[in-house]
């Protein structure tokens, strides 16, 4: 047992009994806190009603940090997706304008039937651009989930095509085997 007659270090009110003694204090089983402990999170908190302990201090801090990090990441992802939606809709609008500008030439060279196809394509691309511009990221995610639920084969095929395109893009950026980054042979 600790000697309580010695002078305790500054900021210490009492000596805590060792856990192996099995003694409890008059606080109902809860460990009493010093003034220093009250100003900071305790590592382990004790429920005074049940006497059970939980890692509320550290566990709570980790939970709070992970929740904040998750919320911040979701906010950044929404912002990134929102920016991408705007640039994508602008690009689709430009493509629609390009198709619309060539309708007269198509009609002149290929006839009115093909010009009608080009007008329809231009209108369809413009409609998609407008729809994309008016969507928020959460609606887009919900639409993607609905597409996957309704037709998983289409979603899987789209993912495979996207993966193939990504691999091709990465391979195009890598130097050929036997060459250096500056293009000279080894």
Automatic annotation (TrEMBL):
Tree of life domain: Bacteria
- Disordered: annotated segments: 1-61
Q: Where is the composition biased (Polar residues)?
A: 1-15
UniProt lists compositionally biased (Low complexity) regions at 19-36
Protein's UniProt name: Uncharacterized protein
Taxonomic source organism? Sphingomonas rosea
Taxonomic classification:
Bacteria, Pseudomonadati, Pseudomonadota, Alphaproteobacteria, Sphingomonadales
